[in-house]
Write a structure and sequence with these properties.
The complex is a heterodimer of chains A (433) and B (404). Chain A is α+β, with helices and mostly antiparallel strands. Helix content of chain A is 48%, strand content 13%. Chain A has helices spanning 2-15, 17-44, 77-86, 123-126, 139-143, 153-160, 211-216, 256-275, 291-297, 303-333, 335-343, 348-382, 396-422, 428-431, and strands at 56-57, 91-103, 112-119, 131-134, 148-151, 169-172, 175-183, 207-210, 228-229, 244-245, 248-252. In chain A, helix 1 packs across helix 12 (348-382), helix 2 (17-44) packs antiparallel against helix 10 (303-333) and helix 10 (303-333) runs parallel beside helix 13 (396-422). The longest helix of chain A is centred in the C-terminal third of the chain and has 35 residues, at 348-382. Chain B is an alpha+beta fold. In chain B, helix 2 (14-45) crosses helix 10, helix 3 crosses helix 6 and helix 10 runs antiparallel to helix 11 (369-393). The chains are: A alpha+beta (433), B alpha+beta (404). The interface between A and B is large, with 49 and 50 residues.
Amino acid sequence: MFAYYLELALHSLKRNKVLTALMVIAIAVGIGASMTTLTVLHQLSGDPLPNKSTQLYYPQLDPTSRNNTSPETQLTYIDAMNLWRAHKADRQTIVVSASIKVFGPQAGAQPMGLSTVATTADFFPMFDVPIDHGSSWVPADDDSKARVAVISKTLNDKLFGGANSIGKSIRLQKWDFRIVGVLGAWHPAPRFYDLYGRGAFAGGDDVFIPFATSRDLADLGIQGNGMDCWNQLTDQIHLENQPCLWLQFWVQLDTVAKADAYRSYLVHYSQEQKALGRYHEDRLLTALPDLMQWLDLNHVVPADVRLQAWVSFGFLFVCLLNTVGLLLAKFLRRAPEVSVRRALGASQRAVFAQFLVEAGLVGIAGGIVGLLLALLGLWAVRHTPADYAALSHLDLRMLLTTFVLAIVASLLAGLLPAWRACQVAPALQLKSN
Amino acid sequence: MQIKPVFVALRRHRLATLLIALEIALACAVLCNACFLIVTRVQQTRLDSGVDEAALATIKLTGYDSANAIDLNARIVSGLRTIPGMQAVSVINAVPFGDHMSTAGITLDAAGQHFGGVIDFYLADPVAFKALGLQLVAGRAPQAGDYQPMTAFLPNSADVVISRSLAEHLWPGADPLGKEFWCEKFHFRVAGVVAHLARPSAGEGGPGTIEWAAFTPVQPGPNLAGVYLLRADPRDLPRVLRDARAAIAKIAPDTVLDSQASQTISELRLRYFRQDRAMAGMLIGVIVALLLVTALGIVGLASFWVQQRRKQIGIRRAIGATRGDILHYFQTENFLIVTLGIVLGMLLAYALNLLLMTRYELPRLPLYYLPIGALALWLLGQLAVLGPALRAAAVPPVVATRSV
């Protein structure tokens, strides 16, 4: 029966080519616009670490006396070191970054300004960072303030032509660091681990060094980009005892029970700090968002992108209304034909199904053209200067979504016209004309 | 032209009429709000920064040793001045549309109780005020004695020049000259007011705060180095900047030039607003597509109705209706449907605006957008229906005599 309906539908669509083309174009344009914006939104709000994001948490404390309604988004040096030394989580790491002057191994070469992350040994296993050559530094290097560095694949290609550069050295400002590891291709988007450095969708980082070393060589000036001080500074280089929030801290907690335990640990820690006279608020605020909650909290997805998605779905809705009107006109015009079919014994349901098949067919055609339009749209987005532009590609999931959306939309649009058409009384229409 | 028969005919196609009206209503709502969004964005990009953008450029260096900052400043300023066409070189901490440097919360009392807002401080040497081309509207420009050494990230006490917008925010209706404010222990007194002064990378506090900036005269030193303001004739500026960037490699080979930040102010401005321009472009695209789809819908349905009514049209022609009558019939029909849509659409536009106001901090939709939107849709409807209506008018009376 389905094949027969399909044949009928094709026949009917062919009969009035202009109207069919109008419907297909309306659906295609609507689908094209909404899939373009939806893909951008999907890429931006995607999980940068799908296998692990539920185990990664970001502890927040409230050491300032600013009458906050929510805990602070970064930690002081003292709190970060306390949490790090306490080792209450399965893994924990401190993250802070800055652009640093780096000299390659060639003598007399111009220095480069490279994004450098100061962190701890757990960073690499915790965030599943791929390592091509060598390995990350070990916790002992953190303790001994070793001058070791892990460099990105991009930098290794640039300085050493992609060769194994383990044991070679690079110079950060005036200090030499021994390369112990070279990363594989690693481009998390957003750069979730460091939202207070450069933009969330900026390119990758090039150099990673132990946090303790970066404090030992405080003149390197790795202080992040979002340093927030709630009191007068007495020293702008040695921030260890300054009233400043400037460090990001991540913990890995493998089970929900451990996360709960860590939450109570944070509360306990805050009370302890208050007893010590470091914290002053009456109501001590703490929080432990997981990775995706943390991204949400920081509005990593630009508001404009959401607005664009809303606008294009409104547009799709107008396109659908348009299609409903056109289908209605088309189906009701065929009332005599329906009348005859009904008189010959077709059930209402059969007539309904026949018209829905026709609507679905329009949807598929609209989906195909819409897909082409979406590809065109994404190509256009890639040529805009936004930070996230390069991410805009259609993946398999969005490809399928396009077709599902197109067919569902056209079937929805076909429901009302098909229902109206199958209401036509048998044989009644035969009398007129 | 009688409207009644048109009404009667429309009532026979209630559903289709309602659908087209609804489509027009939605189009009206989206059109009004999208136009409003575009206008808001474009207005933002027209911001008057208060400085001579076309004549200014900046150079930003990193990686220098702050112990050598004074020497670096001296080398850069004297080195860059020798470039032909260079009118002024100044040490400054930030430039409009560049990276923000000294952003801090201020209070209107020394005790720090009365919070005034988060503002940006432009810290600059004696050359900068004139080089920027700031327009003084009250008080005085910084004098030679105002430029003080800086031991922390702000001078301990300074006479500053603030923007009119900031003055009105801090002391509404009052004369700002001589008024004081504090940032922690740092103390400031307003000595002058300029017409406009946009803060570097503004917008964090919302569009209303974009000019919350204070020009603070200081002496360059370890806390003020690395960012330089260049002034040249607008026609020479690209070449002067190119020469300056090349000269840095010789004057200060031990530093890193931040090429992203070392641009002309016009270029920085263009980059600063690119997202707004892209958004406005996207919205214009949606509006065009929306109007096109709506027009196509009207064309489709009107053609269909014309085809359906060929026989009736023939009969009307046969009993004396002119082509004009038939044409007007379809035009009136379209006018009625579009009017219904517009009435619904205005309510919808208003509701959509309320939603946008809560979610995206958009101002209220000015009422004059509604009649403009209505006019646009009436025009669109009449244009769309013209083709089918002309075809209807061309139906010969002889059709009446034929059976279907």
